[in-house]
Amino acid sequence: MDSTGQGGTGRPAGETSPGPGGSGRRRGAVKQVRSVVRTRPWAAALFLLPALLLLGALVVYPIGYSLWRSLFDSSGSGFVGLDNYREMFTHPGTRQALQNNLVWVVVAPAVCTGLGLIFAVLTERIRWATAFKLLVFMPMAISMLAAGIIFRLVYEADPDRGVANAMLTTAHSAFTSGAPWPDARPRPDGALETSGDGSVLLPGPAAAGSPALLPLVGVKPQELADAADAAAPPPGDGRLTGTVWLDFAQGGGGEPGVIDPGEKGLAGITVQAVRDGEVVASATTAEDGTFGLPAEAAGAELRLPADNFAAAYNGVDWLGPTLVTPAIIGSYVWMWAGFAMVLIAAGLAGVDRELLEAARVDGANEWQVFRRVTVPLLAPVLAVVLVTLMINVLKVFDLVLVIAPGSVQPDANVLALQLYTVSFGTRTNQGLGSAIAVFLLLLVVPVMIFNIRRLRRERAR
Question: Is Signal there in the keyword field (predicted)?
Fold first, then answer.
């Protein structure tokens, strides 16, 4: 007999065979725990009591009280049965919140999971993967309230304050020059008239040799810091000449309709000569505001097209009724894409590389390897991330409250915000608020059950 045990098996005597994968040891440990629970149940109850007390105080009691409170009116003294639930589904604010929550559940988890998957796969191919993951995950360290304040500033409509519109206006100005003087307009008592399409007209035919004066006002002084002084039109010599200038002298004084010393010329304005609705000639004003048209423009009507006064491009109304929900979802993705990336990267680290290499040897390109091998192997992890984010977005509250302005908050409303508004707003109705809380719980429970069952199936494997 071998010294290590009976029959030369190499195990000490009396040791249970581990079986495939150590299942024997696991069964032995489970039996030992069960025997302790059966023989000394008071010990198990003593260890579980603090956790059960906390669970009852923080979870069970609030759920039970909310369910009970939802059956009473706003004062809490009159029993109304299911009336609060009926009112909840007929209230326009709750219906809008349901629609927005549906958008959140469909879009936000999918975008976060997709970006997390892309980031996790791409970071395996770059040297500075750790730094990149740190940057992407860093927003998770910021609270929802702080992130809401940050993105409220990012989405400011004024390009001088809002980062998003500052980037858009900068890109827009790189491809289009825009109107030269968007704030300019004719004098209310002057000779110029504004037509229905926004263009400015000098009524009557313009004569060669008789300079045309086109005074404008409304330009901000800071916009004229580099402008040249206005000059009188040069002699015509058979041509049609004139000046477009700001008919305003700083400090006051001057005569309306006359080029006074110190008044500034408006450069870059297009001047058209129009006859019978057709443009016969056009010119652009010089630095001093002067322009010249050929002799054939004589007798035509002078027009400053509306393009000279088109409003400047100021970006997108991110926090308007149309885009407020997508804008807030964008801030949520900024925060939680890093969470998805870290979980998916951890799952990707456990993928058998031999399977990927075998697919490449068989002739699959990188896209086919990703779509047909990597993604199916990561399906359990992707499901965990997706379901976790779905539960999370059903409870989103802080971002909507902070980012959405008060005027468009009803358009960005979600169930959690509706619950808060109804329960603690100007017209409090905690019975209706409790009904919304119970309904929100019922929405979360199926997703949680699905997640728990899936985790049990994974554990059983």
Answer: no
DSSP designation for 312: P
pLDDT in tens, 15-48: 444 444 455 555 555 566 566 556 677 777 888 8
Would you give the end-to-end CA distance of the chain in angstroms? 39
* Burial class of residue 93 in the structure, from the number of CB atoms within 10 Å of its CB (0-12 exposed, 13-18 middle, 19+ buried): middle
Q: What predicted TM-score, i.e. pTM, was given to this entire model?
A: 0.73
Give 361-419 pLDDT, tens digit per residue. 888 888 888 888 889 999 888 988 998 899 899 889 889 999 999 889 899 999 999 88
Listed in sequence order, the residues at least 6 apart from 194 whose beta carbon sits closer than 8 Å to its beta carbon are 185, 186, 200, 201
Structure tokens at 123: 């970071």
Residues 67-157+318-460, CATH architecture: Orthogonal Bundle (1.10)
| Side chain identity at residue 414, one-letter code | V
Phi and psi angles of residue 255, each rounded to the nearest 5 degrees, phi first: -110, 130
Q: Quick one: DSSP state of residue 450?
A: H
The ranges assigned to domains in the chain are: 67-157+318-460, 185-309
Tokens 């409303």, located at residue: 413
Structure tokens at 199: 């263009």
CA distances to 253, 265, 372 from 227, rounded to whole Å, are 20, 7, 64
- The Cα–Cα gap between 112 and 210 comes to 68
